[in-house]
Q: What sequence folds into this?
């Protein structure tokens, strides 16, 4: 009998159900807290209730995403071209954007992510384009000229943007004014598709968008849609205008009269400070700090000069900026003819044979 009473008392003392006393309550709370800590440390309880799938997806995404917003925000401005088509018979467009050290690297095959319509005799061909620009732009002491031929910037679909100048063949100078561009303001030259003025066909939310990035210049500054906020709350927006104006005596019946020079497109315009909203380079300081170019309706359409220090994008995967190397079929200024043509983009860095 005594043994039975002892056993009964022992069971009552250790039973979780008997515990209105302070010690029993503390013990119960301690056990629950320990269980929660274990779950937090191992993550097993969280994944058992659906967290496992989330965890696995997050892990895969982290591995595949080469440009998370916190480390490479420029990459997020570029478009996903997968699934797009330039039309029957053309390769699918390809584009990859990553950050490597202090540069943003844009790799693509030069195929548009919209229907290609031939405007020039040159058919569309796949390229091996590799474009680089600084992650952190540096303001240039001397504002370099935009190349007369070749890429000066890269659009958010990975295709190159050329300056407002066309090859001197057939008398063309400004391809926008000369109406030799397609519905997206681009065309092909030697198989390479490129833009000369704003590619609005890439966007469904272009009009009035004050933060839309259209492209990146090779000095690292963005090229924005030409809309800015009028007030601090941005309840109203306005379109900015270029400060480059037509030179009256070089126009006739609203048509440009080119002088036959390589710089023909620039010969019919001049920068008039204060006549528009933007500086000579076609940009301005941003209210929150920094600088940006704007893709304006009129000349120079994207960039009037480099506000920052551009990367050297000549060479690499058949990609060329500045001037072409001299050779068969190359007309006008080129690297290798012993003439340093700064207006054509020749510098000691990209054309040392001409510019010692």
A:
């Amino acid at each position: 009998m005594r043994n039975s009473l002892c056993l009964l008392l022992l069971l009552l003392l250790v039973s979780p159900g008997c515990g209105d006393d302070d010690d029993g309550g503390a013990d119960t709370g301690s056990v629950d807290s320990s269980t929660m800590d274990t779950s937090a440390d191992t993550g097993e309880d969280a994944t058992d209730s659906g967290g496992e799938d989330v965890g696995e997806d997050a892990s895969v995404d982290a591995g595949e995403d080469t440009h998370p917003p916190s480390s490479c925000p420029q990459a997020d401005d570029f478009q996903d071209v997968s699934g797009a088509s330039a039309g029957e018979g053309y390769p699918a467009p390809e584009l990859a954007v990553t950050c490597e050290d202090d540069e943003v690297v844009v790799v693509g095959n030069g195929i548009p992510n919209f229907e290609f319509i031939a405007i020039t005799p040159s058919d569309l061909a796949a390229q091996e384009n590799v474009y680089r620009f600084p992650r952190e732009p540096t303001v240039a002491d001397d504002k370099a000229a935009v190349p007369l031929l070749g890429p000066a910037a890269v659009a958010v679909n990975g295709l190159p943007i050329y300056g407002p100048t066309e090859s001197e063949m057939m008398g063309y100078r400004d391809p926008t004014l000369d109406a030799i561009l397609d519905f997206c303001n681009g065309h092909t030259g030697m198989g390479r598709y490129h833009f000369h003025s704003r590619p609005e066909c890439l966007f469904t939310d272009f009009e009035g968008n004050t933060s839309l990035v259209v492209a990146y210049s090779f000095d690292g500054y963005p090229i924005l849609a030409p809309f800015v906020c009028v007030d601090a709350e941005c309840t109203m927006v306005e379109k900015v205008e270029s400060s480059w104006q037509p030179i009256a005596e070089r126009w006739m019946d609203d048509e440009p009269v080119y002088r036959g020079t390589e710089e023909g497109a620039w010969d019919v315009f001049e920068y008039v400070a204060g006549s528009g909203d933007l500086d000579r380079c076609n940009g301005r300081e941003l209210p929150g700090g920094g600088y940006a170019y704007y893709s304006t309706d009129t000349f120079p359409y994207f960039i009037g000069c480099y506000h920052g220090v551009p990367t050297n994008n000549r060479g690499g995967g058949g990609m060329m900026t500045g001037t072409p190397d001299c050779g068969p079929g190359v007309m006008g200024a080129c690297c290798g003819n012993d003439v340093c043509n700064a207006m054509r983009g020749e510098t000691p860095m990209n054309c040392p044979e001409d510019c010692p």
